[in-house]
Specification:
Blueprint lengths: L1 H11 L3 H12 L4 H8 L3 H28 L1
């Protein structure tokens, strides 16, 4: 489906650190504190970055879906 395609394309726009943070938080179910310890940042910084990354992903997915509709 085009939704899966859009999601795949959106993930490719993330840099390595952004992908690592999401993998730790969601795939490995690490807490914000644990993730921060691994990345060398505070728990609060993890939460802020996580939110920014998720907002970025949402915008990219919507952009790719809109492009797909216009084709």
């Amino acid at each position: 489906s085009s939704d899966v395609c859009s999601s795949d394309l959106a993930v490719k726009t993330l840099n390595l650190e952004e992908k690592q943070l999401l993998v730790m938080r969601f795939a490995e179910n690490m807490s914000a504190k644990e993730t921060g310890n691994v990345l060398g940042i505070s728990e609060g910084a993890v939460r802020v970055r996580q939110m920014r990354i998720l907002v970025k992903l949402k915008k990219e997915i919507l952009r790719f879906m809109k492009e797909d509709e216009s084709i």
